[in-house]
Amino acid sequence: MSHGAGLVRTTCSSSSNAPGPWAGTGHSSASPSEGMLDPDYPCTRTALLKVAQMVALLIAFTCVRTSVWTDYSAYSFFEVVTICDLIMILAFYLVHLFRLYRVLTCINWSLSIFGFVATTLCLMNIWLSYKISCVTQSTDAAV
Asked: What is the pLDDT of residue 138?
């Protein structure tokens, strides 16, 4: 049995003269729940996890920003990583909230789990770079 790629056909039409609840009124045939904004998305688990990630990153950034810096490079690296993650997760949140994945069909949105994987990899990178920078180096200079 072969499970190859198939053709998916939809019955929705984007023309304004398609039959539907607003036929002849100048509205499209899409129902009100199919508008630009997804009112149900903020209540989903993925949206709540994205909000929790953004809040945690904002708290982490604020804690590092207001602390006394002892190593400029480590603190600035942490700030850059937290802000980049925050922006990336916010972008994914907005893409799903405003249903931009329908317009951006060239991107495989089933891979949006990338945000979680990228966050995990960034945290691992921070942890490993912290462990490497804390290793004491010998002061012997063999010439």
From this structure: 60
Who's near 89: CB < 8 A, 6+ residues apart?
A: 50, 53, 54, 57, 115, 119
Cβ atoms of residues 133 and 71 within 8 Å: yes
The answer to whether residues 96 and 41 touch, using CB atoms and an 8 Å cutoff, is: yes
Tokens standing for residue 1: 């049995």
**Interval 35-60: pLDDT, tens:** 789 999 999 999 999 999 999 999 99
CB atoms within 10 A of CB 51: 14
Structure tokens at 14: 């984007």
Evaluate if pTM is beyond 0.70.
Answer: no
Number of H helices, E strands in the chain: 3, 0
